[in-house]
Amino acid sequence: MINRHFVSLPRQQQRLLQAQFPELLELAEVGGAKGFHQLDVSVFDHWLSADEAIAEMDEVSLASEQANNEKLATFARLLASRNQCYLVKFKGRYHKRPLFKEFLSDEKRNRWLTPLPHDVGDNWRFRLLFPQLQMVYFEGSDFTHHIYLKEKGGQQVIEAAAVEAGLYLLSQVN
Fold it and tell me: How far apart are CA 100 and CA 89, in angstroms?
């Protein structure tokens, strides 16, 4: 148990959360679902052009990558420390069933919420569920994390944490 960072929630609580958020798989696969408002939190103050993306992500120095990841980790830790959250994992033969895990301690949660290097695939990144905020949080691979809200009421909490962490909120380009 020493090396474990989280444990599964009881079966009844799993079912309640699955019923409350039936769109989780669609959010994970498609990056959006009907009835959800998307916010993106980034170290950049605007959406990058192709040339900017090459300069800022493909040729990023180790020091810049660490600084960017530290800002995103601070943001995730602020949200998680101030609100109840669960880790979301997808299980089953085709990874279609969401399972919810509870962190065993604040220290283990903070360690888990450290972003992976930007060139690691999205399947290995963390996904969090904030039931009281009606919010789902996905770690992104491009120094941008994605948040999906059922209700816009949690937006003020997100904005405050983003400002505190030195990040920017970006709106989707349609």
Answer: 6
